[in-house]
Amino acid sequence: xxxxxxxxxxxxxxxxxxxxxxxxxRYQPEQVHLSFGEKERSIVITWSTGNKTDSIxxxxxxxxxxxxxxxxCSLFVxxxxxxxxxxxxxxxxxxxDPDSLQPETKYYYHVGSxxxxxxxYWFLTPPENLNGWAPSIAIYGDMGNINAQSLPRLQxxxxxxxxxxxxxxxxxxxxxxxxxxxxxxxxxxxIETIAAYVPYMTTVGNHESAYNxxxxxxxxxxxxxxxxxxxxxxxxxxxxxxxxxxxxxYLRYGFKMLVKQYEWLENDLKEANDPANRTARPWIxxxxxxxxxxxNRDDDDCTRIKNRLRYGITPLRLFALEDLFYKYxxxxxxxxxxxxxxxxxxLYNYKVxxxxxxxxxxxxxxxxxxxxxxxxxxxxxxxxxPLPSWSGFRSSDYxxxxxxxxxxxxxxxxxxxxxxxxxxxxxxxxxxxxxxxxFPLADELFSSQSNSPSPQKVGNIEQNHLRDSxxxxx
Length: 474
Ligand SMILES: *[C@@H]1O[C@H](CO)[C@@H](O)[C@H](O)[C@H]1NC(C)=O
Ligand SMILES: *[C@@H]1O[C@H](CO)[C@@H](O)[C@H](O)[C@H]1NC(C)=O
Ligand SMILES: *[C@@H]1O[C@H](CO)[C@@H](O)[C@H](O)[C@H]1NC(C)=O
Ligand SMILES: *[C@@H]1O[C@H](CO)[C@@H](O)[C@H](O)[C@H]1NC(C)=O
Ligand SMILES: *[C@@H]1O[C@H](CO)[C@@H](O)[C@H](O)[C@H]1NC(C)=O
Ligand SMILES: [Fe+2]
Prior knowledge:
Strand content: 25-35%
CATH architecture of the largest domain: 4-Layer Sandwich
CATH superfamily of the largest domain: Metallo-dependent phosphatases
Bound molecules: 2-acetamido-2-deoxy-beta-D-glucopyranose, fe (ii) ion
Number of helices: 10
Strand order of the largest sheet: 15-16-17-18-22-19-23
Number of strands: 26
CATH topology of the largest domain: Purple Acid Phosphatase, chain A, domain 2
């Protein structure tokens, strides 16, 4: 009799196990990454779980996780057939909170809930005096899940502590929405090895266009109200501005955000040029995915004089960015999309404005453009047309750039070749002896008119631009 009771129990247990195993639970946190938050010094920690859980970060200096901060999560549903879902958790650590972050401290942390914790990661906080901070940043575009050639080197360098942040200038995973979002999940796991240690700041690219950029908007946590599409942030003496070049090409998603962005850009640039701000943060660097200039052999828009970003949308030249960035003395414009590295001479309207012939980048008389889209993806690298007079150096090696801002007058840039085992193949200094350089044509060009288009002009032009991006996707 005893044995019958025993086997009945076993049967009941077995049935229960069989029933429940028809759907797995996914409480385990994954895809952990950091970003700078709304307030200077604040750090946002973002991660995903398949099933809904609490959103908790346990952290502390000195290796003990004695502090706790909770946040919230939101449901993200992929637009594909499977409607794959995940919860995206966000917790923000503020410097201002009592007992929160201290300057220049190494914090250890893990994320999760009572249902499961991640591994332990760490990050370093900036020093007390932000204006005297000399941060070091790795920057690249166009990194995929397949053939992410630069990633192992970036993993080694980031975990060795040589970077204060990483900036990814568009085109992630190739593509985050593929296979019902599995490619995005795998890519986010891949970059966890760098993005969980330093803020991973992002710019949107054309590969994020699916479902109106929903994966890009949902997965990252950049500051500002525009779901990562446009925002600015400060790092020591640098004011970074990240924006969407894709609004110029995916006009089928509507003109509204393009109009909004142009307004936002002008306001942000104005504010950054307020004398107190420009003195505290003399460097203004823009981040946009598709370039205004490039000399690649592929007939992309950046090879054309009437490039939409540079020249504006024809025929009225709406939202032209070259004049806007020139007017507000942007120092450096960083682009990607072309799978190569290219450094231009100081440039405005296809004319070179060297500081001097021997030292083109000392007190340059126009912004400097670089293209850094060769981190590595399944589309390989791009080749070049003959060297134009406005281009200084080019390479189709896989790799990424490093920026180190030394102070208000000296910015150091390096291009690392992964093909050549990490060798620096281009190194140069951007130097300005006066923190605020007004470019020579600024006054005469912009004294009178405002470039902001009227709503009526926009309405007319919208009719002519319902077709999509016309170039080969890359
Ligand atoms: C966990 O999520 C899956 C779908 O992602 C769902 O089918 C399952 O019911 C969830 N389980 C619990 C316990 O919430
Ligand atoms: C795409 O998203 C933007 C907000 O980022 C919204 O204004 C626009 O209407 C959307 N377009 C479509 C076609 O859904
Ligand atoms: C300008 O300075 C103010 C006051 O420090 C600051 O709140 C603001 O974010 C700055 N704006 C820009 C665009 O740097
Ligand atoms: C700008 O400087 C570079 C480097 O010296 C030089 O090769 C180039 O010809 C210069 N361009 C002009 C227009 O002076
Ligand atoms: C700025 O940095 C450069 C390069 O490290 C250095 O040569 C220069 O002396 C520094 N300037 C000041 C004012 O510290
Ligand atoms: Fe691209």
